[in-house]
């Protein structure tokens, strides 16, 4: 609680008493702490690939550049790490844009087109896997009043995860209008997660398994971005998952 005390004086400077203002600042403090944690997490996440890049550049400069095979391997690592740095920066900027700007809906978004586009975009990623994406458009579901880019981003993030965490199996996408809601489901038959993680995966930079996430190239911001987009449209997101069985995300967006 923040307390402010102001003396109350009459015209002749006679003291009438004190005005005490008590303010509940729990929420402000909570936001301040969240912001501080976020900045320190961002700094750490950006520093990791940068340190690795600098380390390999130094080693190359110190002589490794003369050994062709070693140099090629180091340059590959530098390439991967700078790509990671770039994805991180893009995701951080996107998250802050979603948080700070009101959504401008220019035209109703054709969900069927968005889903089909995203499936096409991800084809190269499933080409070397034994994974099929199943999507059957519903005849009565086509337009939803939202920014198409945001809907696309939401689907990219969910589908990208489904592909990343499934080696063999099926990814099913469903999108339909139920009463006054648009219901969107992305389900995979991949590695799944244990119950204990489900409440935390929407937090920024939370990863079930840091090593695994690093290998798959995630930034740890994908689901946080999805959640923010859903909240922008006053919607809800739910996750169900079973280890080694698969994961299902269900999003409900009110019309
Ligand atoms: P990342 O960029 O690491 O994938 P996300 O915010 O997209 O970050 O997801 C957070 C964590 O949730 C991931 O690190 C992963 O462990 C877990 N996760 C997300 N989607 C799936 C999925 N479809 N199957 C299994 N685990 C998932």
TrEMBL record:
Any one GO cellular component localisation term in the record: plasma membrane
Location relative to the cell: Membrane
Gene Ontology BP annotations: cellular response to phosphate starvation; regulation of DNA-templated transcription
Histidine kinase domain location: 41-255
The UniProt record lists the keyword ATP-binding: no
Gene Ontology MF terms in the entry: phosphoprotein phosphatase activity; phosphorelay sensor kinase activity
Keywords assigned by UniProt, alphabetized: Kinase, Membrane, Phosphoprotein, Transferase, Transmembrane, Transmembrane helix, Two-component regulatory system
Name of the protein this chain belongs to: histidine kinase
Residue window of the full protein shown: 321 to 575 of 575
